[in-house]
Amino acid sequence: MSTRPTDEQLARLRELGAATIYEAQGQRGSIDAVIKPIDPSMKLAGPALTVDAGPADNLMLHAALQHARPGDILVADARGFLDAGAWGDVLTAAAQKAGIVGLVIHGAVRDAEEIIDMKFPLFAKGLSIRGTTKAYKGSVGQPVDIAGTTVHNGDIIVGDRDGLVVVRAGEVESALELAQAREDKETKFREQIAEGASTVELLGLTGTLSSYFPN
Q1: Where is Mg(2+) bound in this sequence (predicted)?
Q2: What is the chain's pLDDT, residue by residue, as a tens digit (215 residues)?
Q3: 190 has which bridge partners?
Q4: Residues annotated within a binding site for substrate
Q5: Do the beta carbons of residue 123 and residue 147 sit within 8 Å?
Q6: Measured on CA atoms in the order 167, 172, 153, 116, is the torsion positive or negative?
Q7: Domain-by-domain residue ranges, the chain?
Q8: CB 120, CB 93: distance < 8 Å
Q9: Which DSSP category does 35 fall into?
Q10: Cut 0.85: pTM above it
Q11: CATH topology of domain 7-169
């Protein structure tokens, strides 16, 4: 079993941000942009506890609360179903009591205003006031498909208003090193732009653009 990331590593991942980590990983690990934070100010980083919730049912989400460890993020496949809210304020209260630090769901939720007030980071495909059943026998801890991206139990999820990215378990330190190097490079770019350099020069695009804009 892979070692869980430290609080310091998770804080650095949140600070660097999803877009920087995605680019630094070689444009790998993004989750489809159909899944968005219910509040753009929300950020999260932590190990995934994967849940096959199924459409219009939240039995496995209740089950996941019994298996979660403090610091986990629930990552649930609800098949993208938008006509029932599988998560609400009561589940949020229970999740926070268990130390769960966020939810990513390929499906819909409800009680958005209350969840925002509770400061619980939640990324979903949409909102629906309609209720769910509690009968689907899915799974907890098995790989899930989240809008086309496979997430394994223990993978690290990083999210902010730009989107969501998956860092594979065991690759946290290398992802941090690559992301920091990219951040340092972009900081240097901003300094050079302030001194008069163009993005064309900095990115070596002069030759590429010369065929479009010949002298």
Answers
A1: 111
A2: 468 999 999 999 999 999 999 999 999 999 999 999 999 999 999 999 999 999 999 999 999 999 999 999 999 999 999 999 999 999 999 999 999 999 999 999 999 999 999 999 999 999 999 999 999 999 999 999 999 999 999 999 999 999 999 999 999 999 999 999 999 999 999 999 999 999 999 999 988 998 888 76
A3: none
A4: 88-91, 110
A5: no
A6: negative
A7: 7-169, 176-210
A8: no
A9: S
A10: yes
A11: Glucose Oxidase; domain 1 (3.50.30)
Which residue reads 């065929």 in tokens? 211
Q: How far apart are CA 150 and CA 131, in angstroms?
A: 27
> Going by C-beta distance under 8 Å and a sequence separation of 6 or more, which residues neighbour residue 39?
116
Dihedral of alpha carbons 81, 84, 88, 90, sign: negative
- The alpha carbon of 95 is separated from its chain's Cα centroid by a whole number of angstroms, namely 17
Half-sphere exposure (Cβ direction) of 168: Cα atoms closer than 13 Å: 8
Output the known binding site for Mg(2+): 111
Residues making up the binding site: 88-91, 110-111
